Amino acid sequence: MKKGLGILVIVAVVAAAPIAAIGRTRPNIVFILTDDLGFGDVEFTCNERTNVLARLRTPCLDRLANEGVVLTAHYAAAPVSAPSRASLITGRVQGCCSLRDNCFDRAFSETNTLASVLHGAGYATWAVGKWGVAGGGESGESVSSHPLDRGFDYFYGFLDHMAGHTYYHYEGHIRKAFMGITENRTNATDSAKGIYSTDLFVAKAKQLVAQHAAENGDTPFFLYLAMNTIHGSGQSDDTLATKHPLHIPGRPYPAEGVKWPLEPEPLAARNTWIDPAYRDLPENAARYATAITRLDNALADFMGELNRLGLDNDTMIVFTSDNGPADEYGADPRFFGSNGPFDGLKRDVFEGGMRVPTFVRWPARISGGRKDDSPSQFHDWMATLADVAGTIAPQESEGVSLFLRWDKLRNEKTFKPSLVYSQYEFPWGGGTKAFREFESRKAPVRGLQQMLRVGDYVALRTRIREGGAKVRLYNVVEDPFQKNDLSNLAEQQERLRDMARILEERLHK
Question: Is the domain covering 422-506 a CATH 3.30.70 domain?
Answer without folding.
Answer: no
